[in-house]
Amino acid sequence: MRIITTRKNSIAGVFLVAIALLFSCKKILDPTIIELPTAENAITTSSDVEKGVAAAYSFLRTVVPDKVFLMGDMRADVFSSYSQSVNVRQETGIATNTAAALFNNGGGNWNQFYTVIAQCNLLLEKIPQINLYDDAVRKRHIGEASFLRALTYFYLARFWGDVPLTLKGVNIDNLARAPQEEVFKQIKADLDVAINNLELDYGDGDRAVRATKGAAWAIKAHVLGWLQDFSGCEKLCDSVITKGPYSLVTDTTNLLSIFVGKSREGIFELNFDANLRELQQNKVYNRTLGMPWYKDQSDGGGGDDRYLLCPTRDQINRMFTPGARDARLFTWFIRETYLQGVREDRIFLGKYRTLQLKGDTSTQNINESNIIITRLPDIMLLRAEALASTAVGRPAEAALLLNKVRARAYATPYTGGGNIQDTILLERRKELLGEGQYFFDLVRTRKLDKDSKITMADWYQRGAWLLPIDQGIIAKSNFMITQNEYWK
């Protein structure tokens, strides 16, 4: 990102802040308490804050791509392994919602999320103490830190429910889990601060990869939808759509530009640029791409495409009616594998195949596609969902938005019939597959038993939709942190 590279010393500055903050919320973040200098004196100027904001984005980029893909897509049972019994990747069991599978894939560990929060807390503590500060820059920094803290707590609450809530940059106290209501109150307060301090467009070339007012509107819309406030959700979605600087990418031959990043429909996304060393290894990219896009053999599969996570033909047909026209079949997926299938008729997800043109496909340094947190079709369909709810009751308007998303893909328009809420949910699955949304969609709409392997009785009455908490985190809190009820 530009904020990491505009000054020669900024990378070193980010590194120092990162090292300090890794241990700043010690007991709830890391089982091993290591006494290192805190960042008390690391932020004294607006330039230091800029570096600190860059570090916060970097920390978020470290945790979100893998965690959200695995727990937002794999857990929703929309990807499969070549075999369920041999040559199985460890991610395959996530859809079964078993403790071992979730723990083995980081589903019990929230430490990295709290690293992001600790960084944001420190920034928000230090910014008011700095005197020489351009007012517009100060407002932007406050807005960005508040936005990132809210987004991170939103992930935590959707994954684990009640979670420790701290607003301190350095906190060595053991903290119990705060009720979700308290956490969501803070999330909404932070997003309001972000909305009041951020602009819609900064025009500095960092489209979508730094927080804006539109991004804060979009995330707050998701928060209100999660809380079943569909009236408030609909209004915020409308603000994003009608007041934001966003528009659909309509050239169906160039839809992959969305995932290269910074497209006109991008609202907030995590920037990856190999030239800036914004790299990650063994993440969503090489889990879903085979030859010739990904050639490295260190993914646990020896470079063999049987280890890739792909939809099966049956899973594809549950999304797209066979024979029906839809441009996403040959843009979201690799055409050759859709036409012929590979390894027991599986189809490669191709949203990130821009790596072949942009990235280094012979090593792990392949991060050229951005990770989308939210984009315009997400908010259009979220508004359609809110409009179609019984609380709002405007299904005709919902159908118009649904059909705008379908029209971009040359898909058959919705003309009525069936359950429009189910139709919108299916459209979200088709449009946002591989972007870590669908499991959250199923929980929000109370339809987890529709596609996932979690039964309604388990997920709703017993809390099976929540992730378990790693026993090490519980023990190091002196058992002030307790396990989620379903996993006891």
TrEMBL record:
<feature type="domain" description="SusD-like N-terminal">
    <location>
        <begin position="73"/>
        <end position="223"/>
    </location>
</feature>
<keyword id="KW-0472">Membrane</keyword>
<dbReference type="GO" id="GO:0009279">
    <property type="term" value="C:cell outer membrane"/>
</dbReference>
<dbReference type="Pfam" id="PF14322">
    <property type="entry name" value="SusD-like_3"/>
</dbReference>
<comment type="similarity">
    <text>Belongs to the SusD family.</text>
</comment>
<keyword id="KW-0998">Cell outer membrane</keyword>
<feature type="domain" description="RagB/SusD">
    <location>
        <begin position="348"/>
        <end position="450"/>
    </location>
</feature>
<dbReference type="InterPro" id="IPR033985">
    <property type="entry name" value="SusD-like_N"/>
</dbReference>
<dbReference type="InterPro" id="IPR011990">
    <property type="entry name" value="TPR-like_helical_dom_sf"/>
</dbReference>
<keyword id="KW-0732">Signal</keyword>
<dbReference type="Pfam" id="PF07980">
    <property type="entry name" value="SusD_RagB"/>
</dbReference>
<protein>
    <submittedName>
        <fullName>SusD family protein</fullName>
    </submittedName>
</protein>
<dbReference type="InterPro" id="IPR012944">
    <property type="entry name" value="SusD_RagB_dom"/>
</dbReference>
